[in-house]
Amino acid sequence: MEDFFIEETQTTPEISFCFNKGQLEIKGVCFPEYPEEFYRPLMKYFDTQIATSDLKKIVVSFKLTYFNTGTNPIIAELLKVFEKLQKKHDKIILIQWFYEEGDDEMKEVGEYFKTLTSIPFNFIAVDEIL
Predict the structure, then answer these.
(1) Which end of the chain is more exposed for a tag (fewer CB within 10 A), N or C?
(2) How is the chain split into domains, by residue range?
(3) Which residues contact 68 (CB under 8 A, 6 or more apart)?
């Protein structure tokens, strides 16, 4: 199975999925002009290729330093894709929500997303998201 990668830009995060490790990382800033179009390839990849793969466990790391309100519904939709993988395809999903120490707003946003899903969330405070 092929890995998935989208390079970071000034307005979009780096998205990398290492199939062999079962690790997805979404890192950087996110305020694309068309968030749905930006995330569509990732959602399709998980909804088709990963759903039918023999991969059992996926760790999703959100390492966002900023995202606009237009990205909120897309993150919620991504969580639905991951929840579907968990419920319908017996995948074990774990969300790691990274936030910079003292950035209470980013932590609170992660806590809000946690309420939208049954997927376990870990909140990880770091000095700086690199």
Answers:
(1) C
(2) 4-126
(3) 30, 31
